[in-house]
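Worked Example 4.2. Consider the chain below.
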Amino acid sequence: MFKIRNLLVVYLLCCTGGMGPAFAKTTEDGVTLKALLEPVLSLQATFQQTVRNERGKLLQSLSGRVLLKKPAQFRWEVLGSVPRLIIADGKKVWDFDKDLEQVSVQKLNEGQIRAPIFFLTGDTNALEKDFNVTRLPLNKGKCLEESEVCFELKPKKEEGSFQWIKIGFKAGVIKEMQLLDQLGQYSQLIFKNIKINEKISARQFQFTPPLGVDVLEND
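Applying the procedure from the previous section yields the following structure tokens:
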């Protein structure tokens, strides 16, 4: 359970193992991905996440909702039997585990802001500094599970927490993400009920720890 719980956090805040070169060659695939991501100022959606081990065995299935807003703000809420709430307000990340009655707090550093989750509503200029971006081919008109345009992002630094992330779009809107971590665990996210650039209250990205929970401050 520990690895599965932390895989969700890795998915949100997986770092690339350090910054790439100051100047990176721009590719056609990178330009296309950037053009799809740049217009997104905010995003609201529900999601279904599955986690499988290196043998393909289903370890866990999660569902919830996600809100993202530029710059560097998001609310990721897992519902059901393993409730969890992760909020970034642009300066700090709050990770509230309801089962453990514990909140972990850490400053939002540059490495996390450059993580793939923030490319959805944040600065896309670092994409090809940190990742090799490749557009995936279509198979019978689709790529990944439900998408029409897909990309694979491989970190240029090998010491990162994942091997690759794949992002899929349908009708110009993000539809799914897939991730393979360094342990061989595979996670897939399918987004539904997607709303782009609709107003989101600032209160959605604020967090006050409930009374009685343990608060762990991490620098």
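The chain is about 15% helix and 45% strand. Residues 2-19+27-207 form a domain with the outer membrane lipoprotein receptor (LolB), chain A fold (CATH 2.50.20.10). Compare this with Example 4.1 before moving on.
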